[in-house]
Amino acid sequence: LLLAHASSYYEALFSNGTVESGSSDVKADPNFSSAAHRVLIGQLHALGNAPLPATLDARLELLCLVTNVRGVPGEGGRADAGARVLERCKRAVRDSLCPYNCLAMLLQLKPCAADV
To answer: For all residues of the chain together, what is the average pLDDT?
Structure first.
C-alpha cells in the first residue's frame, strides 16, 4: 500500500493484473544491492524527502534503480515520490561532477540510461 501510494510505478504494478497484484511481495531487482532497495523504500516512505545517501557510488546506484522503476508517469497531477527522488539524485550527481570523475560516472550511468 505504501509503495502504491508513493509511486505510480508500484501503483500500476499492484493494480494491473500482474503477479504482484495478487501478492504483497515485490521481487527486488537482482542488479541492485539490497542497500539501494532499502534507500528507495525509505525515500518512498518519506515521499522523496529523505536524505540521499552520503557517498557518490550509493547515489549513482540509487539513480540507476529509480531510473529502472520509473516508467509510468504520475496520473491526475498526483505527486510521485519516485519522480522526486529521481530529480534529487540527478541534481546531486550533477553537482558532484568534476574533471576527475566525470568519465567514470558517465560510464556507470550509461547502462541504466539515466539522463543526467
So the answer is: 76
Please say whether the beta carbons of 52 and 92 come within 8 A.
Answer: yes
Q: How many CA atoms lie within 13 A of 97 on its CB side?
A: 14
Q: Please, are residues 49 and 82 in contact by the beta-carbon 8 Å criterion?
A: no
pTM above 0.70, yes or no: yes
C-alpha to C-alpha distances, 6 to 2, 35, 99, 112, nearest whole angstrom: 6, 19, 36, 22
What is the rounded distance in angstroms from the CA atom of residue 43 to the CA atom of residue 98? 27
Q: Give the length of the chain.
A: 116
Extract the C-alpha cell encoding 50: 529523505
69-89 per-position pLDDT tens digit:
764 444 444 557 888 888 898
Scanning the chain, the segments in alpha helix (DSSP H) are 2-6, 8-15, 34-45, 56-69, 81-96, 102-109
